[in-house]
Write a structure and sequence with these properties.
globular; alpha+beta; Heat Shock Protein 90; two-stranded antiparallel sheet; 5-stranded mixed β-sheet; single chain; 7 strands
Length: 251
């Protein structure tokens, strides 16, 4: 392995470690802040302002949990493996993958600070970066189609990306030969709608059976939508028939 490849590998490892350390520090700081606020809060003097503050703290916690659920050690490990392979085969592709990986981690860290919806196109950019990284792993088994009609609205950070990740990991990766994810955005009379549709293995949304699917991520996205923009998340799916996730944002 030549010096350039070694440098590339070390850069990726450094970025990954820095990301994990930063996320851990931010979460500890938030926990300490929430504990301090809890001690100082006078239960007999709760008013509208404190209600808004508590609402902000709840969004902080949900956003942190969503961020961590979407960037677990398995994702970093798989990305590092793919980049390591590229370092030996195609250094230019490896450099591009490192840029995408760095951008993805930075966007995830930025999302932890967000208490208001971000522009849908910004979220879509993050989805596209995520897909580039996953295609390093899945190749032609992961296909993505877009039907973007409406763009002038906001969504909670990571909300669409989390659903695309669920579709890739739990829908297509378990289907022989992979499949396709379709991302659609529409404008209705009363709301905007984002659909994430996959032709994967499907599942029963009402079942309590553990199937490895990130139900925690779904719950966090649903809670963020409700708290941040009064939005909703609905899932239509059944075993063997793929899945359709519908995010609705009221006007």
């Amino acid at each position: 392995m030549d010096a350039a490849v070694v440098i590339l590998v070390l850069m990726v490892v450094f970025i990954s470690v820095l990301y994990l350390v930063t996320v851990n520090r931010l979460n500890k700081e938030r926990e300490l802040r929430r504990e301090a606020e809890s001690r100082e809060k006078d239960q007999e003097k709760i008013n509208a302002n404190s209600g808004r503050e508590n609402n902000g703290n709840a969004m902080d916690l949900m956003q942190s949990r969503l961020t961590l659920s979407q960037i677990g050690p398995h994702f970093i490990f798989n990305s590092l493996n793919a980049i390591h392979y590229l370092c030996e085969k195609d250094t230019v592709a490896a450099q591009n993958a490192i840029e995408d990986f760095s951008l993805y981690l930075r966007e995830n860290m930025d999302s932890m600070k967000s208490q208001v919806p971000i522009p849908f196109l910004q979220e879509l950019d993050h989805v596209e970066t995520y897909i580039k990284l996953e295609k390093l792993r899945y190749g032609d088994d992961l296909n993505v189609e877009y039907e973007i009609i409406a763009t002038d609205f906001g969504v909670p950070a990571l909300s669409v990306q989390a659903m695309v990740e669920n579709a890739a990991h739990y829908g297509l990766s378990k289907k022989e030969g992979g499949g396709t994810i379709k991302i659609i955005s529409l404008e209705g009379r009363d709301n905007w709608c984002v659909q994430v549709i996959d032709d994967g293995v499907g599942f029963d949304p009402d079942s309590d059976v553990t199937d490895g699917r990130s139900h925690t991520g779904i719950r966090n996205v649903r809670a963020l939508l409700r708290t941040m923009c009064n939005g909703t998340l609905d899932i239509i799916s059944s075993p063997g028939k793929g899945a359709c996730v519908m995010i609705r944002i009221p006007k």
